[in-house]
Amino acid sequence: MSEIEREAMEYDVVIVGAGPAGLSAAIRLKQLDADLNVVVLEKGSEVGAHILSGAVLDPVGLNRLIPDWKDKGAPVNVPVKDDNFYMLGEAGKVRVPNFPMPPLMNNHGNYIVSMGNVCRWMAEQAEELGVEIFPGMACSELVYGENGEVKGVVAGVFGLEADGSIGPDTEPGMELHGKYVFLCEGVRGSLSKEVIAKYDLSAGKEPQKFGLGMKEIWEIDPDKHREGSVTHTMGWPLGKNAGGGSFIYHLDNNQVYVGFVVHLNYKNPHLYPYMEFQRFKHHPMVAELLKGGKRVAYGARAISEGGYQSMPKMVAPGVALLGCTVGMVNVPRIKGNHNAMLSGMAAAEAAHEAIKADRAGDELNDYEKNVREGDIGADLKKVRNVKPLWSKYGLMASLGLGGFDMWTNTLGFSLLGTLKHGKSDAEATEEASKHKPIDYPKPDGKLSFDRLTNVSFSMTNHEESQPSHLKLKDPSIPVEVNLPKYAGLSARYCPAGVYEFVHEESKEPRFVINFQNCVHCKTCDIKDPPQNIKWTAPQGGDGPNYPNM
């Protein structure tokens, strides 16, 4: 649609994504200069609609951004009171004591929060400062300047025909130009992928690694509820099939976050991450907690896990990558929101200084230096070897040697240097012939649920006449390559039942994309072995509508 003439609006800074990184950047820009024109574009139907996170929040970023957040009514009200870690077997558990763990693993001073609600509150703070926020505005294209710099985005395209062509009801959207553009799309954003590829920002870096995080909110028996309790587990049911683990966070109002993470570098294409999550809830410890309760919401999203050595270059002419777009999750802590906020502030400060010096469209190198040499880099560097140790040598090596390395890094040195990740998650997938199929129990409808029923609890919705936002580079590959070679793994890795292989008598198998089910986790874009599936943003307002996730 680049041939369409559109109206353009001019801003100082254009921010794509109203998550913790984007909103922190917007707030900080207006704190530094109230006269700056700042706009935030959010593809969700409202701010927070697409936010899915654990979440135990380290308030370091919030403290720095809005020191009086408590007085201003931030929805950060449940301090962590106890911290539990278990190794699970199929029928039992072993408590791992807290004392051998490095200090950075301590959750004292952190809060159990709904990041969706935190972002809604942050948006209110931003608007009070004069930031313009437009929800329901998906950004579908980048706009480049005469010298190859990023100078803006196209947002607000609606009403395309199913084949992607322009129809009578098409709204072409508009261009929003800025002296700088901040991409805060979260993990594997489509515009960020384009920037990384165009400017070769991953050159010399390790491949990014990912996990698939799935989460349900439960209302449980008040007698079993322990507000402020945090529990993490490893071991069963994944065992040696994949890395990952669970989290159980007791927030207020008798609600519990129950989540499960599967590292996407698993080898066996028969693995079914969603069913591993459902099976986990039948462990006696979890089943007893949830018995008599009610699941009220479900969602899923990819998590960046590559850490320090996988962060690409974060700046190119006119554009900066922030937060999970870069990959700032501290994997052993299962925390990234604090770093996302810090990155937003660092980008804002660099852009403010540049604009004050009458610069525009160049590289904000001071932002990158701040991230790598400041608090974010220090946070990630201490834990940089935990993920590669886990991937190469398994859970026990990660706990033992990884824990030792975190301790030495806390003291300022590492005997291991910086380990490499090696293969991408797509490349790690092996052919189905090398592995045995995995038999999963049928969901019981009480503790465990079939995938499509759970998807209905994400409140996801896509206008059905629009083009599918899930693009195949080669439509023949799913049936001709993925089905015989990888046993059609896309039908299993997707936590929303988007992909299916339809077998009909006397007919060749068909590959069907039920894009209406998509919860925007982007696992398909990451895990597909031939890298044949491309996730793009659908029209604004579509996708999940998470309540308090």
Layout of strands and helices, then pairs:
Layout (H helix, E strand, L loop, with lengths): L7 E9 L3 H13 L5 E5 L13 E2 L2 H6 L12 E2 L2 E7 L4 E3 L15 E2 L2 H14 L3 E4 L3 E6 L5 E6 L18 E10 L6 H9 L11 E10 L9 E7 L8 E7 L4 E9 L9 H8 L3 H7 L3 E11 L10 E2 L2 E3 L15 H20 L8 H9 L1 H7 L4 H8 L1 H16 L14 H4 L22 H5 L14 E3 L4 H10 L3 H4 L5 E4 L7 E4 L9 H5 L5 E3 L14
Parallel strand pairs: 1-2, 1-11, 2-8, 5-13, 11-18
Antiparallel strand pairs: 3-7, 4-7, 5-6, 9-10, 10-11, 12-15, 12-16, 13-14, 14-15, 17-18, 19-22, 20-21
Helix pairs in contact: 1-3, 1-7, 7-8, 8-9, 10-11
Question: Please, could you describe this protein's structure?
Answer:
There is one protein chain. By secondary structure, the protein is α+β, with helices and mostly antiparallel strands. 26% of the residues lie in helices and 22% in strands. It is built from 16 helices and 22 strands. Strands 1, 2, 8, 9, 10, 11, 17 and 18 form an eight-stranded mixed β-sheet that branches. Helix 7 packs antiparallel against helix 8 (365-373). The longest helix has 20 residues, at 337-356. The chain is globular.
Task: Tell me the structural class.
Answer: alpha+beta
Q: Roughly what fraction of the amino acids lie in strands?
A: 15-25%
Sequence stretches where pLDDT stays below 50 over 5 or more residues? none
N/C terminus separation:
35 Å
Q: Let me know the average pLDDT.
A: 95
Number of strands: 22
Rounded to the nearest angstrom, the radius of gyration is 22 Å
Sum up the overall morphology in one term: globular
Helix tally?
16
Largest sheet composition:
8 strands, mixed
Helix content: 25-40%
